[in-house]
Amino acid sequence: MTTMPTLFISHGGPNIVISDTPARHYLETISDRVPAPKAIVIVSAHFETHGVTVVTDPRPEMIYDFGGFAPELYKMIYAAPGAPELAEKVLALLDQAGLDPARLGKRGYDHGTWTPLKLAFPQANIPIVQVSIDPNRDAAWHYAVGQALSPLREEGVLLIGSGHITHNLRAFFSVMRQGAAPDPSLAAKVNAFTGWFEEKLAANDTASILDWKTKAPFPSENHPTDEHLMPIFFAYGAAGEKVRAERVHNSVDHGFFANDSYLFH
């Protein structure tokens, strides 16, 4: 069986599924970029718990965890099944790694999961297991979660981290809702930050990547809080030690809100 790559995606706002943007059109190409997965394990920045939690729900429903968007978004359904047997395997791997995972029997798909997967795999026929982030843990911890689940790649499972390469919502909403002009200095800081990640990932400089808050330029301007970056460390860790990072998408909304996506081979 082909060893699966891993994937980090910037999932955008929930309206990405109806917006005519480069980021949306990129997400629609994912199924052409990866081998057909038998199942998906996804870590969403919108699934926050203390420690790591695995969802065993066989039929996840929908979570519309947003407000003020187009009414049609609240009627959308992504009916992909859960995968309880795979979830138990995920739990076992995390337990073997000493990560003390918790089990959650009922949880729907938040928009960090269903919006990108609705675009990437619209048939909704691939079983999905959801795994949480812990916003109080650092990059190295999320990297270790990815490492623990890396063996699943040999079984045709696609491991996805769904977050955002930059996530300054205060600046974003000031532009979107108040009509303010984008700050050109912020755009430069975003470019420096995303360019640093591209360089360090290409070099497989794990030590620098995991020390991003100290080493990367303008970390607080790009991530006032850390949760949306944590999925990239999961995907990077899950790809193994001899990883090759490919920046497969890098559009920018409003001059500063970056949508980078990486395939890790």
UniProtKB/TrEMBL annotation:
* Protein's UniProt keywords contain Flavoprotein: no
Cofactor or coenzyme needed: Zn(2+)
- Keyword annotations from UniProtKB, A to Z: Dioxygenase, Metal-binding, Oxidoreductase, Zinc
Q: Could you give a GO molecular-function term held by this entry? A: oxidoreductase activity, acting on single donors with incorporation of molecular oxygen, incorporation of two atoms of oxygen
Q: Name one Pfam family in it.
A: LigB
- List the InterPro entries: Extradiol_dOase_DODA (IPR014436), Xdiol_dOase_suB (IPR004183)
Return the CDD domains for the record: 45_DOPA_Dioxygenase
Keyword Magnesium on entry: no
Q: Where is the Extradiol ring-cleavage dioxygenase class III enzyme subunit B domain?
A: 7-251
| Domain of life, source organism | Bacteria
Q: Give the family, as the similarity comment puts it.
A: Belongs to the DODA-type extradiol aromatic ring-opening dioxygenase family.
Query: What name is this protein filed under?
Result: Dioxygenase
State the organism named in the record: Mesorhizobium zhangyense
